[in-house]
Write a structure and sequence with these properties.
Layout lengths: L3 E6 L5 E2 L3 E6 L5 H10 L3 E3 L9 H16 L3 E8 L7 H8 L5 E6 L6 H19 L5 E4 L4 E4 L6 H20 L3 E4 L9 H5 L5 H23 L12 H5 L5 H8 L8 E5 L9 E5 L5 H10 L4 E5 L13 E4 L3 H6 L18 H16 L5 H4 L14
Parallel strand pairs: 3-4, 3-5, 5-6, 8-9, 8-12, 9-11, 10-11, 12-13
Antiparallel strand pairs: 1-2, 1-7
Helix pairs in contact: 1-4, 2-3, 2-10, 5-9, 5-12
């Protein structure tokens, strides 16, 4: 039997778990206009970013990512805000999003009298979209329509022992029912490539997994060897050390447990989406925001975020469900963290029970329950990665 949740069916067949209107600028100089539009229309989400005079593949990556963000099914419509002289125009962004068949309008500042006129025009578009979106009702859909992102931050000893393995159980339950899951953070998977490759559906995917992680390792080696400050080249943060992690190997072995035991169906490039269902490795660095942004661009409607040390961060329009295996952290940050599988440590529940609890909480959030990051308005994790040198 396949479980269900209550979601919003989109015109392209995909399913959203939120029903927001996205306000997306194409360039940093349109950020304030996008922000002012969003402030005037409740239920809208705006995406501040520093993209400006990017070039070549760097600009292509940013453009692909913004298009994919706009196509995410959690957004019922999109207002694109452009400046008017950027290489990646508002019309380019709108055209890319249009394949999702959702509501979309463009505002170009230089085509209006001034920024105030652009704000008013964009506000009118957003209000009209929000009114239409407010009439859509949730409907019962299969878990196979769900894609989750697996991310983590502020890891400690309990992350690899409790929170990540429990999340792996929940991830397996979704994949087993035809849904999708995304493992990422390649800088925190170094040394696990052979283990992960053994779970690939075929030799081609196995080789892709190994090469993707090897490529990230080569990038890190280059950056380390060319760094002017050797004290800033550690792959283990001070917080990780303070939390009891001893090495990147220990961190990697714990990090991979988020993916459970399901077979890997393939590798997804940053700024792209899987073409089928299953568990995938998403190529991205270990930066929390860049990972979440890549997962949302790939189509994830929700991100599950184990944190041993604790963090308040969230993403605009996509729930970031926080869990911790550390009972002390949960008590200290219970206004920010949603679940405490750390009860496994005290013997109050088994690891399997903790994983099932996470799974059922995912379905509740997919059906409309707000996570704490949403309630508090946290949206810091929108951050597009840059191509390495």
């Amino acid at each position: 039997m396949v479980d269900t949740f209550l979601g919003f069916r989109r015109n392209d067949g995909n399913v959203g778990i939120r029903n927001h209107i996205a306000i997306i600028p194409t360039i940093y100089s349109a950020n304030k206009v996008a922000e002012r539009i969003s402030y005037q229309v409740p239920g809208t989400m705006y995406f501040r970013h520093p993209i400006g005079s990017h070039e070549g593949e760097d600009l292509n990556l940013a453009a692909k990512t913004l298009i994919q963000i706009g196509k995410n099914p959690n957004y019922a419509g999109v207002v694109v805000v452009g400046h008017g002289d950027e290489a990646f125009s508002a019309f380019d962004l709108a055209e890319g999003i249009r394949t999702s068949r959702k509501m979309i309008e463009t505002v170009v500042i230089l085509n209006e009298e001034d920024s105030l006129t652009a704000i008013q025009k964009g506000t009118n578009y957003a209000r009209e979209m929000q009114q239409i979106a407010s009439q859509q009702q949730r409907e019962k859909v299969s878990v196979k329509e769900l894609m989750i992102g697996l991310n983590c931050g502020g890891s400690d000893t309990t992350s690899g022992l409790i929170a990540n393995p429990a999340l792996g159980i929940a991830s397996d339950m979704i994949v087993e029912q035809g849904g999708s899951s995304l493992l990422s953070e390649l800088t925190e998977l170094l040394g696990t490539e052979d283990i992960l490759a053994r779970r690939a559906i075929n030799d081609t995917v196995a080789n892709e997994i190994k090469e993707t992680i090897y490529r990230m390792e080569r990038r890190l080696q280059y950056q380390t060897s060319h760094s002017s400050n050797k004290n800033r080249t550690h792959l283990i943060s001070k917080g990780n050390y303070d939390g009891g992690l001893s090495s990147v190997v220990e961190k990697s072995l714990g990090s991979m447990k988020k993916s459970g035991n399901a077979p890997f169906s393939g590798v997804v490039s940053y700024g792209e989406e899987p073409k089928e269902k299953g568990l995938f490795l998403l190529d991205s660095p270990g930066h929390d925001g860049e990972v979440t942004t890549g997962q949302v661009a790939a189509g994830a409607q929700i991100v599950i975020f184990p944190t041993g040390r604790g963090t308040p961060t969230g993403f605009p329009g996509v729930p970031v469900l926080k869990i911790t295996g550390n009972p002390t952290t949960f008590e200290k940050m219970k206004e920010n963290i949603d679940l405490n599988p750390g009860a496994v440590i005290s013997g109050e529940k088994t690891l399997r029970e903790a994983g099932e609890e996470i799974y059922h909480e995912i379905l509740a959030v997919a059906s409309g329950k707000l996570v704490k990051a949403e309630i508090l308005g946290h949206d810091e994790q929108f951050c597009i990665t840059r191509l390495p040198i």
